């Protein structure tokens, strides 16, 4: 099982959105057995499933129209200190586990979760506050990567634009991270209203769901590009697919 943590010490920067987009597509369209661990105290993803998705599942079940399985991937709420205990118990059941963590990096539990992941994805922001927080956080990950190499551990991290708008500040951010030698994915998501309508039931590669959320024709291409690049960078090989 590959463990992918999505993290940034700046809150509200798109962590939950990025996980939802990737987990849904990898599970529903690429055939991976996916687990999402919601370890964020805000419980955004768990709340989306409970409040937005579960009622529609129950309605369809009662009407006899539910297509099983109801959800393409499993989702569990786990405390930060118990994340790897839980993953150790169920590691044989999944190919990929995404971890959503709180927006802070100043405690031991956070460092432990980050260090235990195979890949950390860092949503990139363009404002001054986001840029400063993100660069500081990625430099922490750079140190974790150095220590991991010394111990021959599998650890990588990448910045990723999860709401790209092509502002000059974003280009400045790219140049700054490149100059510091901080890696980032070339694929990105644009700042589209459709990504604000989160669902843990559907993939953005599903045409019916894209129509329902008002996604334009570019969404399929950018989601697929992001998934393909992550698969290549994280070495999620075809042998992992059930």
Task: Describe the overall structure.
It is a single chain. The chain is α/β, with parallel strands linked by helices and 242 residues long. Helices cover 45% and strands 12% of the residues. The protein is built from 8 helices and 6 strands, in the order βαβαβαβαβαβααα. The radius of gyration is 17 Å and the shape is globular. The model has no long low-confidence stretch (mean pLDDT 90). InterPro entries: CobQ/CobB/MinD/ParA_Nub-bd_dom, DNA_Partitioning_ATPase, P-loop_NTPase.
What's the structural blueprint in terms of helices and strands?
Blueprint: E1 2-6, H1 15-28, E2 34-38, H2 44-63, E3 74-77, H3 83-90, E4 96-100, H4 108-116, E5 119-123, H5 128-150, E6 156-160, H6 168-179, H7 207-212, H8 218-234
Parallel strand pairs: 1-4, 1-5, 2-3, 2-4, 5-6
Helix pairs in contact: 1-8
Strand order of the largest sheet: 3-2-4-1-5-6
Mean residue pLDDT: 90
Instruction: Please bin the fraction of helical residues.
Output: 40-55%
What integer value in Å does the Rg equal? 17 Å
Distance between the termini: 12 Å
- Compute the number of helices: 8
Q: Quaternary arrangement of the chains shown? A: single chain
Question: How does the major sheet shape up?
Answer: 6 strands, parallel
Runs with pLDDT <50, length 5+? Answer: none
Approximately what portion of the residues adopt beta-strand conformation?
5-15%
Give the helix/strand class: alpha/beta
Shape: globular
Number of distinct beta strands:
6
Order of helices and strands: EHEHEHEHEHEHHH
């Amino acid at each position: 099982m590959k463990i992918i943590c999505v993290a940034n010490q700046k809150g509200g920067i798109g962590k939950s959105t990025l996980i939802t987009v990737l987990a849904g597509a990898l599970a529903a369209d690429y055939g991976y057995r996916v687990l999402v661990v919601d370890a964020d105290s805000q419980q955004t993803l768990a709340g989306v499933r409970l409040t937005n998705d579960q009622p529609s599942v129950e309605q369809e079940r009662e009407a006899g129209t539910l297509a099983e399985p109801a959800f393409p991937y499993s989702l569990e709420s786990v405390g930060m200190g118990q994340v790897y205990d839980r993953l150790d118990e169920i590691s044989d059941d999944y190919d990929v586990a995404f971890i959503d963590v709180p927006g802070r990096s100043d405690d031991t539990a956070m460092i432990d979760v980050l260090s235990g992941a195979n890949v950390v994805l860092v949503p990139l922001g363009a404002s001054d506050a986001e840029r400063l927080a993100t660069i500081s956080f990625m430099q922490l990950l750079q140190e974790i990567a150095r220590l991991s190499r010394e111990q021959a551990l599998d650890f990588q991290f990448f910045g990723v634009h999860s709401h790209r708008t092509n502002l000059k500040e974003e280009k400045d951010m790219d140049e700054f991270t490149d100059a510091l030698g901080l890696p980032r994915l070339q694929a990105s998501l644009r700042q589209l209203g459709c990504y604000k309508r989160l669902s843990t039931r559907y993939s953005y590669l599903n045409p019916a769901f894209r129509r329902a959320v008002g996604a334009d024709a570019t969404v399929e291409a950018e989601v697929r590009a992001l998934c393909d690049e992550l698969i290549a960078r994280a070495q999620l090989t075809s042998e992992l697919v059930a």
